[in-house]
Write a structure and sequence with these properties.
Elements (H helix, E strand, L loop, with lengths): L2 E8 L3 H12 L4 E5 L12 H6 L1 H19 L15 H25 L3 E4 L1 E5 L3 E6 L2 E12 L3 E3 L12 E2 L1 H4 L8 E5 L3 H12 L3 E6 L10 H14 L3 E4 L2 E8 L2 E8 L2 E7 L1 E4 L3 E3 L32 E3 L10 H15 L13 E3 L4 E6 L2 H6 L4 E7 L4 H5 L6 E7 L5 E8 L2 H13 L4 H5 L10 H9 L10
Parallel strand pairs: 1-2, 1-6, 2-3, 6-17, 8-15, 9-10, 9-15, 10-11
Antiparallel strand pairs: 4-5, 5-6, 7-16, 12-13, 13-14, 18-19, 19-22, 20-21, 21-22
């Protein structure tokens, strides 16, 4: 007879491990299945996010930004540092150390919460049984409830087959041991921009090929246009919009890329090429045929608004289901499902999930864009405030970008907030909280913001929706 648990979670990424922790907090006998392992073959919890995604990329972004500042900004502050040298190996070592500390931290949390960690590939069988496979061996467990949190994987394209030597996916791009003279990136979305920014700051000549004619389609157009100018004219990223890569040819330690742009064929040669065209649900072979698990047309697990699948007692969360592929969205779904299983009535509002792009400047937003407001026929007001007029921003030598607020013209309720500028990833939290409580721009306007802080830009943008900004001409 197989060992039985109250809950088995398949996947230990931000959605899965958080779900397991919350289930354990609520008194459930919980197991979590995960097959990720580090370079030495040891189990490494945290999924893509901690191992080769959110965390290591932010570590490199921070290191590369400091390197860039020493070369281009310190002099403005009266600081002379002499010749600046770069040790890429040390940078990668630091990144790996951060990853190791955090993944071990999750293992420690599992132990403290008495969660059984099962290392191997999990597969849902009929009757809420879970098969765990590793090195050709299998074991079967059963549960009253199963939570599928298998995450996502990079989308591959036939014209650029990843070898993680010359042609890289996001994981390979985090382990480049030498700054490439020329770097190509297929895809100018979130991942492509962040990874391209890292190596541009470190000295690479970076070209991004984006098949879409529009830059950062999900972003409010006013901000995306300003961001495009900043990244191209200000920082030197060569972003080719409407460029379709048609062929790649690897030649020893370089790759020749052929692409179509404006009806003409072009080619260029790069030392490295990163493929960052998006991600898809990692649902391959996740369930046996007789389990009855239903997938949608995009290969995601089909769920209702309570993350329930087609099988009673089986839930799915995170990148494996509909909605934005964001770590924090998956984590909140993990908490939500754990509390549903416990008989509680939790709250989760997908309309207030924030988005962040960790470029420099950062881009963050929550709610609807001005274009969406128009398309939905909403009578709205907008207000914006530039960081160039913010005292703290100027003191930081950060003079670009803005905060934009969109509000319902009738009710004054905040419908969306969009930020391009310093620490946008942190500033957006106030907007999320405001929208979660159905706040109006007047609520933000009447809230005292410390001076001098970057947060004053949001305060002023809220005032600007009714023509009352104090530190810019309305």
């Amino acid at each position: 007879m197989s060992e039985k648990f109250d809950v088995i979670v398949i996947g230990a990424g931000p959605a899965g491990y958080v779900a397991a922790l919350r289930c354990a907090q609520l008194g459930m006998n919980t197991a979590c299945v995960d097959d990720w392992q580090d370079s030495e073959g040891n189990p490494s919890l945290g999924g893509t996010c901690l191992n080769v995604g959110c965390i290591p990329s932010k570590a490199l972004l921070d290191s590369s930004e400091k390197y860039s500042q020493t070369q281009h900004e310190f002099a403005d502050h009266g600081i002379s540092v002499g010749k600046v040298e770069l040790d890429v190996s040390k940078m990668i070592e630091r990144k790996n150390g951060i990853v190791s500390n955090l993944t071990k931290g999750i293992a420690g949390l599992f132990k403290a919460n008495k969660i059984t960690s099962l290392h191997g590939r999990g597969k849902l069988l009929a009757n809420k049984q879970v098969e765990v496979s590793k090195d050709g061996k299998t074991a079967t467990y059963s549960a009253d409830n199963v939570i599928i949190a298998v995450g996502s994987e990079p989308i591959s394209i036939p014209v650029a087959q990843v070898d993680n030597d010359v042609i890289l996916d996001n994981a390979g791009a985090l382990d480049i041991n030498k700054v490439p003279k020329k770097l190509g990136v297929i895809g100018a979305g979130v991942i492509g921009l962040e990874l391209g920014s890292v190596w541009k700051r470190l000295g690479s000549e970076v070209t991004l090929f984006e098949a879409m004619d529009e830059f950062l389609a999900p972003v409010d157009k006013q901000l995306s246009r300003e961001a495009f100018r900043t990244f191209t004219k200000g920082q030197g990223l060569d972003i080719k919009l409407g460029a379709k890569v048609t062929e790649t040819k690897v030649n020893k330690k370089s790759v020749r890329v052929t692409y179509e742009l404006n009806g003409e064929s072009h080619s260029d040669t790069f030392d490295k090429l990163i493929v960052a065209v998006g991600r898809r649900a990692n649902t391959r072979d996740i369930a046996s045929d007789d389990a009855g698990l239903k997938l949608d047309e995009r290969g995601r697990v089909d769920v209702d608004d309570h993350c329930r699948t087609s099988i009673d007692g089986v839930y799915a969360i995170g990148d494996a289901v509909k909605g934005p592929m964001l770590a924090h969205k998956g984590s909140e779904e993990g908490v939500f499902v754990a509390e549903v299983i416990a008989g509680q009535k939790p709250h989760l509002n997908h309309d207030t999930v924030p988005w962040v792009i960790y470029t420099h400047p950062e881009i963050a937003w929550v709610g609807i864009t001005e274009e969406q407001a128009k398309a939905q026929g909403i009578d709205y007001n907008t207000g914006f405030f530039p960081f160039a007029a913010n005292g703290r921003s100027m003191a930081m030598n950060e003079k670009g970008g803005r905060v934009k607020v969109i509000a319902d013209a009738k009710t004054d309720r905040v419908l969306g907030v969009h930020i391009l500028g310093p620490n946008a990833s942190e500033l957006i939290a106030e907007a999320v909280l405001a929208m979660e409580y159905s706040a109006s721009t007047e609520d933000i306007a009447r809230t005292v913001h410390a001076h001098p802080t970057l947060s004053e830009a949001l305060h002023e943008a809220a005032l600007a929706t009714t023509g009352r900004a104090l530190h810019k001409v309305n």
